[in-house]
Design brief:
The structure holds 2 protein chains of 2 kinds.
Chain A lengths: L4 H11 L5 H10 L2 H4 L4 H4 L18 E6 L2 E9 L1 H6 L1 H17 L4 E11 L6 H21 L3 E8 L8 E11 L13 E6 L9 H4 L17 H16 L5 E4 L4 H13 L2 E5 L12 H6 L5 E6 L1 H13 L3 E9 L3 E6 L2 E7 H5 L29 H9 L8 H4 L10 E3 L6 E4 L5 E8 L1 H6 L1 H17 L4 E10 L6 H21 L3 E7 L3 E2 L2 E2 L3 E10 L14 E5 L10 H6 L12 H16 L5 E4 L4 H13 L3 E4 L10 H6 L6 E5 L4 H10 L4 E7 L3 E6 L2 E7 H18 L5
Parallel strand pairs in A: 3-4, 8-11, 16-17, 23-26
Antiparallel strand pairs in A: 1-2, 2-5, 3-5, 6-9, 6-10, 7-9, 8-10, 11-12, 13-14, 14-15, 15-20, 16-20, 18-19, 21-24, 21-25, 22-24, 23-25, 26-27
Helix pairs in contact in A: 2-10, 6-7, 6-9, 7-9, 9-12, 17-18, 17-20, 21-24
Chain B lengths: L1 E6 L6 H11 L3 E6 L10 E4 L20 H11 L3 E4 L1 H8 L6 E3 L7 E9 L15 E8 L3 E3 L2 H9 L3 E5 L10 E5 L5 E4 L17 H14 L4
Parallel strand pairs in B: 1-2, 1-3, 3-4, 4-11
Antiparallel strand pairs in B: 5-8, 6-7, 6-9, 9-10, 10-11
Chain lengths: ~725, ~230
């Protein structure tokens, strides 16, 4: 239990007596960092959270966006880092389950899952390999069974995650606006616990997640059961259709303690409940255990006496548990009883609102000289370097991962995973595009610019499908916030995200903060992960097959920004240099121009230029279309740079456009009109990926051979321990 | 014409199938919960994909003991067209309506990818509009999709023309690359790939016409729409 001394004193002085053991457990769970956001909440308010499309209602666990014609999209992001680092299969699976229930609790059907996975260096760290393999299986087994497509995400490996794992899960929901749950309660309404039984798994999970991971406390990890979750989804949606739900909340971190106190606080009511009424997995559970168990697949529903019978019938149909555990009162108290005996009685407002902290921050020492570059040995063979990068775990194709996820179920997936962003069709004829992105290598060097870069990259990916960004999810993952240097990196990232969100009018519709991400070797690199949701009003730009003679254009300048690049870190094993910085004006112009070009049906394919730089982005286009490409490096717009910089700099705001020759002049007209920096830099055809410096090819690779290596490098490494290059 | 879509606890392609039947091909489709019976006047039955009972014990084995299966068996005997897709195929196999078993894929992983089928039997109610050996681009999504039968049964399948679909190349290690089979009478068909995910051009990256013929075959068999 991790209640601070001061917090214990506050508790005692507030209630004017010694707290009971149940009260201590409830408070410890609810005031944990995981549930209370006590270190971050004060600062999170800086993010813009409103906008013309945002629907804000009390008690929602997910963000709600109006997508027109009476429909809404809901979105949320969560992580399950601590559990996944100990038990990757169950940790990752229950991570999916939790975020799905957040979507469900607004009254919308979950329609997509995204997952961002981060582990140590799988090239030499066998544990990282084990964590990775099992986290992927956990997500696959859970999401596939639910019949919710996993349509996107990212996978990254970095030594800072040694012995650890970051498992982020984002989900989207869809439904009719009129079906949104309007959280409310009347006096004497009933509080119902629906779903799986309450057991001893996940006890103290939220406190476990609010400390540095020292002991591998497996009992704090929840046990997944996707079958029960699937039944809950169907039962809840039926109950919603029948108008049986007054208010609803999912049971996640902190279990019943948090669900009861947060519901009471949000609705400004009191709840009296009896632990004896909770359907448990074991007969001899203590009230304290029942209150903080984080057993999965449970929902708390407030309904009326007259509606209860119908709700019970639905639960009976799906054979899921349904217990009336309490009732609504108007005393604003959380009153927990065991039979007739009171075991806890606290004011809801007091429980649900931990004293917020204002932690000190200080510029980290390590940043002092981080931008100084080292002299490197010149690269003698760039073909080999590119091949090595294409086979590197961070850049190699992730088809081995998303091929294990059902990404078609629900028959909405228009643009499948493996592209820039995935696209779903909606029932109102519009299309939804979404992507999550992180970049700890950039964020380590510059937490502010790195975080902005993640945000812009996610926007770029969505823009590549022709969608306009309408909402953002942020997931801020850092080490121990009590270290002022770490807290400074948190604040910097948050400020950067806020600036970008405000400038681009993209409201933050949901988010999560995960702190205390520490490994035996120290804190993780700052790892904000940003999800961006975009909307396409009419037919999305479906990528067309690239054919011989098609032109390759680049929009945006390439700059000398090698810090945190895959080239520096993977090839030169060097951490440092200047990381890419987003120029807001250029970013806006480029985004708008690319959307214009797509809207006018002038391009065959649009691809974002990011990890690994131009060389990787061009190779990806060539490989996925199995066609060669000749690129002239001296034509690449931007300051005059050495060829390694042009090839591998990860400068932001860059897009690759592929078009038929006949459309070239029309595209140029639009780009010139918008005053963006662009150039035709190459042409497709043949069987080779070639980059020319003047008349001399500096890179010359066979497409088919390169494609094979890129495609199989990850499974070769994970399954057979074999490096491909 | 009435088509029943059977829903088990854990079915998750039921709504997709229903959408395709009603909105794309204009059948008069109805859901039937696994505990209920099927009405006598039904013209075809479809068992959709998903994870009935969370694939516990073995995919499809618990659902095969659902009350509704007795009615499905009766209808099978009467010659009514019955199609099982993915988990539906697994249930038909487990309930003895179709021969063989479905084992874990050779990769030991769940596999979601687009592949091609070859039509081997164009006499069933779900394939009568195809030419023999016609190619169908279609996605698979399963963990236990490797069809297996012993040598004797394989000989029988071939002799009685019970192999309906084969993969155009090795996908998951199925015996003889089998992707779908039928019973001896040809009215009960099971297939691992998902035709309901391939009939709309918006979500089919290759060609939606071939897979549409599966539903058009049923239309031609049981007559026009509602």
């Amino acid at each position: 239990m991790s209640l601070e001394k001061q917090e214990l004193l506050d508790l005692k002085s507030k209630i004017g007596r010694e707290p009971t053991s149940t009260e201590l457990q409830i408070i410890a769970a609810e005031w944990s960092e995981h549930c209370s956001y006590k270190s971050s909440k004060k600062h999170l308010k800086m993010l813009p959270m409103t906008g013309p499309l945002v629907i804000n209602e009390k008690g929602y666990d997910s963000g709600v966006l109006d997508v027109g014609d009476g429909y809404v999209v809901t979105a949320h992001i969560e992580s399950h880092n601590h559990p996944s680092a100990v038990e990757p299969y169950g940790g990752a699976a229950t991570g999916v389950g939790g975020v799905i229930r957040d979507i469900l609790s607004a009254g919308t059907r979950p329609i997509a899952i995204f997952d961002g996975l981060r582990f140590g260096n799988i090239e030499n760290d066998l544990q990282a390999r084990w964590l990775f393999k099992n986290a992927v299986t956990g997500i696959a087994d859970y999401g596939n069974c639910l019949g919710i497509p996993t349509i996107g995400g990212e996978v990254e490996f970095d030594e800072c995650y040694e012995n650890y794992a970051l498992v982020d899960v984002a989900a989207l929901g869809f439904g009719k606006k009129e079906n949104l749950i309007k959280n409310h309660a009347k006096k004497d309404d009933l509080v119902v616990l629906m779903g799986g039984s309450t057991g001893r798994d996940g006890i103290g999970g939220s406190q476990f997640a609010s400390d540095s991971l020292e002991s591998e406390d497996r009992s704090a990890v929840q046990i997944p059961d996707p079958f029960i979750e699937k039944l809950i989804i169907e039962a809840v949606l039926q109950a919603r259709n029948d108008g049986l739900i007054h208010a609803m909340k999912d049971l996640g971190g902190g279990g019943l303690s948090c669900a009861i106190s947060e519901t009471a606080d949000a609705l400004e009511i009191g709840i009296e409940m009896d632990v004896d009424k909770v359907h448990t997995r074991e007969s001899d559970m203590h009230p304290d255990e029942i209150m903080v168990s984080e057993s999965q697949e449970r929902m708390l529903i407030v309904t009326s006496k007259t509606k209860l019978k119908k709700l019970e019938e639905i639960c009976k149909k799906f054979r899921i548990g349904c217990s009336v555990i309490g009732r609504v009162k108007f005393d604003n108290q959380v009153h927990i009883k065991k039979g007739s005996k009171t075991v806890a009685n606290l004011s809801a407002d007091f429980v649900a609102n931990a004293t917020l902290l204002d932690l000190p921050s200080k510029v980290p020492d390590y940043l002092k000289n981080i931008e100084t570059e080292k002299k490197f040995k010149p690269i003698s063979n760039y073909s080999k370097t590119l091949m090595k990068l294409l086979a590197s775990p961070n850049i190699a194709s992730k088809i081995w991962v998303y091929g294990q996820y059902d990404h078609e179920v629900g028959i909405r997936t228009v643009v499948k995973p493996g592209r820039d962003a995935s696209v779903l069709r909606l029932d109102n004829g519009k299309f939804l595009s979404a992507k999550i992105d992180g970049n700890p290598k950039h964020c380590y060097i510059n937490p502010r610019e790195g975080a902005i870069g993640c945000f812009e990259e996610a926007c770029r990916n969505v823009v590549c499908t022709g969608a306009k960004p309408i909402g953002m999810l942020d997931h801020l993952q850092f080490g121990n916030p009590n270290d002022p240097e770490i807290f400074w990196t948190f604040l910097e990232s948050l400020k950067g995200l806020t600036d970008f969100a405000k400038t681009f009018d993209i409201p933050c519709v949901g988010g999560k903060v995960s702190l205390y991400n520490e490994t035996p070797k120290g804190p993780i690199k700052p790892t904000p992960v940003i999800g961006v949701i975009g909307l396409i009003d009419k037919k999305p730009s479906i990528q067309q097959k690239i054919s011989k003679g098609d032109c390759l254009l680049i929009v945006g300048d390439t700059k000398d920004e090698m810090g945190g690049s895959e080239f520096f870190e993977y090839i030169h094993k060097f951490v440092g240099g200047k990381c890419p910085v987003v120029n807001f004006d250029d970013s806006k112009k480029n985004m708008k121009s690319v959307l214009d070009v797509i809207k006018n049906d002038l391009v065959k394919s649009v691809h974002d230029c990011s990890k690994g730089g131009l060389a990787i982005a061009v190779s990806e286009l060539s490989m996925t279309n199995l066609i060669g490409c000749k690129v002239s490096l001296e034509k690449v717009p931007g300051e005059k740079l050495d060829i390694d910089r042009i090839l591998f700099s990860e400068s932001h705001s860059r897009y690759l456009l592929v078009c038929d020759k006949t459309n070239l002049s029309k595209i140029e007209v639009i780009l010139k009109k918008n005053k963006v920096s662009f150039k035709q830099i190459g042409q497709f055809g043949g069987e080779k990926i070639q980059f020319f410096n003047g008349a001399k090819p500096v890179i010359d690779l066979n497409v088919e051979k390169t494609h094979k290596i890129w495609l199989h490098a990850l499974p070769n490494l994970v399954l057979h321990g074999k490096k491909s290059v | 014409m009435k088509v029943g879509v059977v829903v088990f606890p854990g079915s998750n392609c039921d709504r997709d199938m229903y959408h395709v039947l009603t909105d794309v091909f204009h059948f008069d489709a109805q859901y039937y919960w696994h505990e209920k019976g099927l009405p006598k006047n039904i013209d075809a039955v479809i068992l959709p994909g998903g994870f009935s009972y969370g694939d516990r014990l073995r995919a499809g084995v618990i659902a095969a003991h659902s009350p509704i299966i007795k009615d499905v068996q009766k209808m099978a005997k009467k010659g009514i067209p019955i199609l099982g897709v993915c988990n539906g195929f697994q249930i038909l196999v487990e309930s003895g309506l179709l021969p063989g078993v479905l084992l874990k894929n050779k990769s030991l992983n769940f596999m979601c990818e687009w592949t091609n089928l070859i039509v081997e039997n164009n006499k069933t109610p779900f394939t009568n509009q195809f030419k023999l050996n016609q190619k169908i681009p279609i996605p698979i999504a399963n963990g236990e999709g490797r069809y297996y039968v012993d040598d004797d049964t394989m000989k029988k399948l071939k002799k009685k023309n019970q192999i309906v679909f084969r993969y155009s190349e090795v996908v998951n290690g199925s015996s003889n690359r089998i992707a779908g089979v039928c019973n001896e009478d040809g009215n009960v068909v099971g297939m691992m790939p998902h035709p309901e995910r391939a009939v709309e051009s918006e979500i089919n990256p290759v060609d939606n016409k071939p897979s549409s013929l599966i539903f058009e075959s049923l239309l031609s068999k049981i007559g026009a729409t509602k």
